[in-house]
Specification:
The structure holds three protein chains of three kinds. Chain B is an alpha/beta fold. Chain B has helices at 2-21, 36-50, 66-74, 90-97, 168-180, 185-198, 208-216, 227-235, 268-278, 281-289, 320-338, and strands spanning 28-32, 54-58, 83-86, 101-102, 123-136, 160-163, 203-205, 222-226, 240-243, 254-262. In chain B, helix 2 links the parallel strand 1 (28-32) and strand 2. Chain C is globular, with a radius of gyration of 17 Å. Classes of the chains: A mainly alpha, B alpha/beta, C alpha/beta.
């Protein structure tokens, strides 16, 4: 890879994703670091870690078998299941919590962990499915010949276990950085304060950026400690490569278990993906006061009319961020995967924007860009695009890195030997080869940008989005309009994935 | 392949133009933490009347007021906001004390009560919300509830709610209690709240609107909320009644909107005209008549029957500036108490 | 007279283990140099080092009289060495998204062949390895032997001065193997092409081999 290209991409990433963190860190007053109440913080951190572990365990318990079944067995309605299993991950977490709480009165720490687990189990399912699809069929066949299905399952579990545990690590990271869901779910019953609560409260109650940033480091450290090794495990999992001498595994015949397992899988997907959407549709159609399809239609039309500028802004920012990320993620992700020296440090740097509490990332953007020299940029919608790109480019870069690591290095070597320079190799060979992961990465950025709220709060250009409007409207109860607007947001969030799954022959091809 | 490249280039160019066009320069920038639902129609009307191109940036409920206050603070090197319309006063007082606001003596403010105005004219208070108990009449007799400490009554264990006092009007309210109650009493009250919440006997909601919903839906019998939230519940037909607590005691707290001009605001003249309009009796009357049922602070302002006048109940006597100045210390104190 | 390949004292390490240990090799222009050695002796690594794909710890490589690698410093990047490489395995390193014809056209584009001439030239190269009828297929749609022939055509289409072959004839059946060896020999003679051919079985080259090099534990023990 050309050093110039990599340097350019790294510089772009540094400006957009790491610059705000540096600007934010520069705000910390040393006195605030010294004054941290470590005993209180340790208590909160422990409770937070417990919540994260609970969520990760639930995500693993539900996600790992689901992922394996989706990849290796022919369940009834497998195609639809594969698309729907992603839904809980894509929905804004608070919308998911609100919908779930609409169905149950279960509260407390365990309920919170369960909702977090429900929101993140698709991560585990995705990674496990992807890993299970890449097990060389000859390995599974050899195990089956030696000891039947049980032996095969044991061998396959051994092969996918590192990836399953690593993806549970990602679920952990998501859970420990959230506070809105925890606060919402424990609004009734025993209160369950967590560490992210404290950071947010420091910022919110006293306008105290320095204190908030200072108090954030233990949580950032905890997240990095889990996420970086998890990423390295995923990268080094000894499974396969895209092409070359790979033999895909054959489908497992479930026999008499096919229907019971299909029903179970549909029950899980129904409860976690369809129930929240149905709940929103129910409320948009009149809810407990009397559901009527006509009301649902009217609400949807009215919400679209009222929220059109906000939805347009959301879509524009999300598409802009996704497009902006493509070249940076391609170059940087590829370079990261092919570099030995920079692997650990580079991964830690790339993942950093995801490990910083979002509100502080917003503060950093404000500190970095709101200055006379960049005034025109700061006041334009490009600022919202930069914010979203900076926050979610890491997901894209890591996805491309994972996909690159799984491709045969000799494919690129051949291009170099054929006389193609780095840029031509990148555009002519690497990019088409990684077309699916690139599309997947762009979709991930689009979806996360569309549902982003916390980091966008402080950046004026990012304030006109549909999610902003939704949260403002939610203040006065979940009436029809709010539920209808939430449905529209869900529609746009789910649209690219739905189109992809309808038109793609390799469903999981877009996944890292 | 070539046509694909052309199409991609055209897409990028379109996107770039679309994004660039979103950043046109307005005549006035207003940061507004009054709920978008109420502020938007009023400001739109003013926009049409004045002919100004106004860009309004609203806050989200989760960060009510603080997000915009922080932005005013952070943007001090290059102010973008011309008018900051806050739905409470504490953060505005803090901005004023830090020298981040510009003085302006609006002619519309002449009729405001003295306690609603900064002596140095850096901010003005108007259109208040009351801190009331919302009571579900199917679950409890409103006559049984009359004071702040009813929340601790064992008879209502598990059936009462308030927002966690770490932000918003609940933080301001609790800070004010520390000023008006005898020393130590407010602190003891909050310690009890914390203990009961951990035991599941008192519910700490994630905002006043959430308290309103819990009570409206019958999940709680009563709880502390703001009058605007209460009126929304009433309008939706929920079986609720408002209790203005501590009549004959410390009184019911009123929290006014405040409006101010950040120091160095780029379009001061338009900002002043906007403030003259916002502080007018007409706007206060419109806010009283709206779904939020804001309580006019001027007795002369017309209001619907369901909006009480200051004379119809006993308001809490407190100094806005004192409470505003204490807010940061109180917030840190409450944070240590509730987040451990 | 300059040599096609002159490698002196090559050292390559993988995870602290020396894969090449002071390996030296000199190959004359137009030679067919056969490299043999037991598994793990460093044959593939030697080819990758010569191609510039494998960083050196120490040593020096000249290709056709031009300094290509000097210790850890890569003086000539792989694409400017004039070297082609056919990887070990049934068509390993083929570009899975490109059809056979597009694969060759890509190489021709890299060489600056005008767009109008590429299709016909690509087809000629494919016919050379008897893949003309399969020009529209992607690598995934080819058998192991066909894929290997495509890899060979791709390497040849770059018109390299030196062609490195890493066990290229393994997946082919005996008649095709003999046919390809004969074609390689013809190309070698016509264009003074230099071949460095790694194999387990020196007999597959027959009498065409002009030099035999034996690698053991990363060092050249007989040349």
């Amino acid at each position: 890879m050309s050093r110039g290209l990599v340097a350019f991409a790294a510089l772009a990433f540094a400006f957009v994703a790491l610059g705000p963190i540096a600007a934010m860190a520069s705000r910390v007053d040393v006195a605030d670091l010294a004054a941290l109440d470590l005993a209180r913080g340790a208590g909160l951190l422990w409770r937070t870690a417990q919540l994260g572990l609970g969520a990760a365990a639930i995500a693993l318990l539900v996600g790992a078998p689901m992922g394996w079944l989706l990849a290796r067995a022919q369940l009834v309605g497998a195609q639809a299941l594969r698309a729907l299993v992603l839904v809980p991950l894509l929905l804004p977490p608070l919308v998911l919590a609100m919908a779930c709480m609409g169905w149950t009165s279960w509260r407390g720490g365990l309920a919170t962990a369960a909702i977090m687990g429900v929101g993140t189990y698709p991560l585990v399912a995705l990674y496990v499915a992807r890993a299970a699809e890449r097990i060389d069929g000859r390995r599974s066949d050899a195990a089956r010949l030696a000891g039947g299905l049980a032996a095969m399952a044991r061998v396959e579990w051994e092969l996918v276990r590192p990836v399953a545990l690593a993806s549970a690590g990602f679920a952990f990271a998501f859970a420990v950085n959230d506070f809105a869901v925890v606060d919402y779910v424990s609004s009734l019953g025993p209160k369950y304060p967590v560490y992210a609560d404290d950071i947010f409260a420091s910022w919110r109650s006293g306008n105290d950026t320095s204190k908030a940033v200072a108090s954030a480091w233990p949580l950032v450290a905890l997240t990095l400690l889990v996420v970086v090794p998890a990423l390295l495990v995923v990268r080094r999992s000894p499974l396969f490569s895209y092409e070359g001498d790979f033999r895909p595994p054959s489908r497992v015949e479930l026999g008499a278990w096919r229907w019971p397992l299909s029903i179970l899988a549909w029950a899980v997907v129904g409860a976690t993906a369809l129930a929240p959407l149905l709940r929103l549709a129910f409320e948009a159609g009149g809810g407990a006061r009397g559901f009527e399809p006509a009301t649902l239609g009217r609400s949807l039309v009215a919400a679209l009319a009222n929220g059109r500028p906000n939805l347009q802004a959301s879509l524009l920012h999300a598409v802009g961020a996704a497009c902006l990320c493509v070249p940076v993620a391609l170059v940087l992700g590829h370079a990261l995967a092919r570099s030995r020296r920079w692997l650990v440090f580079g991964t830690a740097l790339v993942v950093l924007p995801l490990c910083v509490p979002p509100i502080l990332f917003g503060v950093g953007n404000l500190a970095l860009w709101n200055r006379p020299e960049t005034a025109a940029l700061y006041d334009s919608a490009w600022m919202a695009v930069l914010l979203q790109a900076g926050r979610y480019a890491p997901l894209f870069v890591l996805g491309v890195a994972a996909a690159t690591a799984a491709t045969d290095q000799r494919i690129e070597d051949s291009a170099r030997l054929a006389g193609a320079g780095p840029a031509r190799t990148l555009c002519g060979i690497v990019a088409p080869l990684l077309a699916s992961p690139l599309a997947g990465g762009a979709m991930v950025v689009f979806v996360f940008a569309l549902r982003e709220l916390d980091a966008a709060i402080l950046v004026p250009a990012a304030n006109g989005t549909a999610l902003f409007r939704l949260y403002n409207a939610v203040h006065f109860g979940r009436d029809e309009m709010v539920a209808a607007l939430a449905l529209w947001i869900c529609f746009f969030v789910l649209l690219p994935g739905a189109v992809w799954s309808l038109h793609s022959r390799r469903n999981m091809g877009a996944l890292p | 392949m070539r046509s694909l490249h052309h199409r991609l280039a055209a897409l990028c160019a379109t996107l770039g133009l679309a994004l660039a066009s979103c950043g046109s320069d307005p005549d006035l920038v207003v940061y507004c933490s009054l709920d978008q639902e109420f502020a938007e129609p009023l400001i739109r009307e003013y926009q049409e009347r004045s002919g100004l191109d106004i860009r309004v940036e609203y806050d989200v409920e989760a960060n009510k007021n603080v997000g915009l206050a922080l932005r005013v603070r952070e943007e001090v090197a290059r102010p973008r906001c011309d008018v900051f319309w806050s739905n409470e006063f504490a953060m505005v007082v803090a901005l004023a004390e830090d020298g981040l606001l510009e003085a302006y003596e609006s002619p519309s403010a002449a009729s405001l009560p003295a306690e609603m105005k900064d002596p140095d004219h850096r901010w003005h208070g108007f259109a208040a919300r009351g801190r009331v108990f919302i009571v579900n009449t199917n679950l409890v007799d409103p006559g049984q509830i009359d004071s702040w400490d009813d929340l601790l009554d064992p008879r209502h264990a598990g059936k009462v709610a308030m927002a966690r006092p770490l932000a918003g009007t609940t933080l301001t309210h609790m800070a004010a209690l520390h000023e008006v109650l005898p020393p130590g009493e407010a602190r003891r009250f909050l310690e009890s709240v914390d203990r009961l919440s951990r035991e599941g006997r008192l519910n700490l909601a994630n905002g006043n609107a959430h308290v309103m919903r819990l009570v409206s839906e019958g999940q709680c019998a009563f709880g502390w909320t703001d009058t605007d939230d209460f009126h929304v519940a009433l309008e939706k037909g929920a079986p609720v009644q408002a209790v203005y607590p501590d009549q004959g005691g410390i009184g019911t707290m009123l929290i006014p909107n405040t409006i101010c001009i950040p120091a160095g605001a780029p379009r001061t003249e338009a900002a002043r005209r906007f403030i003259d309009w916002a502080l007018s009796e007409e706007v206060e009357a419109r806010l009283a008549a709206s779904r939020s049922a804001q309580i006019p602070v001027r007795p002369s302002v017309a209001r619907p029957a369901h909006v009480k006048a200051p004379g119809e109940f006993q308001p809490m006597r407190y100094d806005l500036r004192t409470v505003g100045l204490s807010i940061r210390a109180r917030a840190a104190e409450f944070q240590e108490l509730f987040l451990k | 007279m300059t040599h096609a390949i002159e490698a002196v004292g090559l050292v390559v390490e993988h995870g602290g283990r020396r894969v090449l240990d002071q390996a030296s090799l000199r190959v004359e222009r137009g030679a067919w140099c056969v490299v043999v050695g037991p598994s793990g002796s460093g044959k593939t690594t030697l080819l990758r080092a010569l191609a510039g794909l494998q960083p050196l710890v120490a040593g020096r490589i000249e290709v056709c009289g031009r300094l290509a690698s000097d210790g850890a410093r890569l003086v000539l990047p792989p694409e400017r060495r004039g070297i082609g490489l056919v990887f070990q395995g049934g068509g390993a390193g083929l570009w899975p998204h490109l059809r056979a014809q597009a694969t060759i056209e890509f190489v021709l584009a890299c060489r600056g062949v005008p767009r109008k001439q590429r299709a016909a030239t690509a087809l000629r190269w494919l016919e050379l390895v008897e893949l003309g009828p399969l020009a529209a297929r992607k690598p995934g749609e080819l058998s192991g032997g066909e894929a290997q022939r495509l890899a060979l055509a791709r390497a040849l289409a770059g018109e390299p001065a030196v062609l490195l072959l890493d066990e290229p004839l393994g997946p082919l059946d005996a008649p095709l193997r003999a046919e390809l060896v004969a074609r390689l020999e013809a190309l070698r003679r016509e264009r003074e092409l230099t071949l460095v051919h790694v194999t387990h079985d020196p007999a597959e080259v027959g009498a065409h081999g002009t030099a035999l090099v034996r690698l053991e534990h990363g060092a050249v023990v007989a040349a």
